[in-house]
């Protein structure tokens, strides 16, 4: 997946990288990594009613200077990935069906990128799960896509992992989801999926860097 990083006024964005050495940007799912280790729980979320002002403010920042021009959202608009007391992460699909994402803290856009081609990563004609982006903001998150199916739950090792449904794109054939951790996390997570009443299981690779690890369930 190729993507372009931009900021308001055409200035380059400096991506905020984890101190542990993992890097941000787009990513496509690779083969599951059979790594073990202790599970890394999702970063704790504040209650939605406490974050209404932050969510509205960040949405306005992106609408005014971050998600504009050719990279402006299509019919789905800006889709909230996660919010925290000082900022939020959003994803959206442009009118020409390119995926974009951004994180904003204290009303400053710290990270923003868009795919350079429509429907990238390609939508699986059957069913599939693919990585979309790595996000940094009040922790470390992974945005991923499920094609022609829904994610019903996730696990990190043996522990349940909070997974957020972000929204649908690609004319309804793809649903975006996100998982969040306190810091860079490597290994794989387990996903339970639903398609036309049938259930299935798969694993999604987070990455190869980080002190925390999600591994195969014991």
| Percent in strands | 35-45%
Rg over CA atoms, rounded to whole Å, is 16 Å
Task: Enumerate the strands of the largest sheet in spatial order, edge to edge or round the barrel.
Answer: 1-5-4-3-2
Q: Mean pLDDT, rounded to whole units? A: 82
Main beta sheet strand tally, sense and closure: 5 strands, antiparallel
Helix content: under 10%
Q: Give the tally of β-strands.
A: 14
Number of helices: 1
User: Pairing-aware structural class of the strands and helices?
Assistant: mainly beta
Per-chain topology:
Layout: E1 3-5, H1 52-66, E2 79-84, E3 87-93, E4 99-105, E5 108-115, E6 128-136, E7 140-147, E8 150-156, E9 159-161, E10 164-169, E11 174-181, E12 185-195, E13 198-207, E14 212-214
Parallel strand pairs: 12-14
Antiparallel strand pairs: 1-5, 2-3, 3-4, 4-5, 6-7, 7-11, 8-9, 8-12, 10-11, 12-13
What does this structure look like?
With 218 residues, this protein is mainly beta. Helix content is 7%, strand content 44%. It has one helix and 14 strands. The strands form three sheets. It has a five-stranded antiparallel β-sheet with strand order 1-5-4-3-2, covered by helices on one side. Strands 8, 9, 12, 13 and 14 form a five-stranded mixed β-sheet that branches. The protein has a four-stranded antiparallel β-sheet with strand order 6-7-11-10, with no helix packed on it. Strand 12 and strand 13 form a beta hairpin. The N and C termini lie far apart (33 Å). Residues 5-21 and 24-48 have low confidence and may be disordered.
């Amino acid at each position: 997946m190729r993507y372009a990083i931009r900021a308001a006024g055409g200035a380059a964005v400096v991506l905020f990288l984890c101190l542990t050495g993992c890097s941000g940007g787009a990513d496509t799912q690779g083969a599951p990594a059979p790594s073990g280790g202790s599970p890394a729980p999702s970063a704790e979320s504040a209650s939605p009613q406490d974050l209404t002002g932050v969510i509205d403010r960040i949405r306005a920042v992106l609408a005014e200077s971050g998600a504009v021009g050719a990279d402006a959202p299509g019919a789905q608009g800006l889709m909230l990935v996660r919010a925290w007391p000082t900022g939020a992460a959003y994803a959206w699909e442009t009118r020409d069906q390119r995926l974009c994402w951004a994180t904003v803290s204290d009303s400053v856009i710290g990270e923003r990128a868009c795919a350079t081609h429509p429907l990238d990563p390609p939508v699986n004609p059957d069913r599939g799960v693919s990585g979309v982006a790595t996000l940094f903001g009040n922790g470390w998150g992974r945005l991923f896509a499920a094609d022609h199916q829904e994610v019903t739950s996730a696990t990190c090792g043996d522990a349940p992992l909070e997974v957020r449904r972000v929204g649908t794109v690609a004319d309804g054939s793809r649903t975006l989801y996100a998982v969040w951790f306190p810091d860079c996390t490597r290994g794989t997570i387990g996903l339970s999926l639903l398609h036309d009443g049938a259930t299935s299981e798969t694993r999604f690779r987070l990455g190869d860097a980080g002190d925390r690890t999600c591994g195969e369930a014991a």
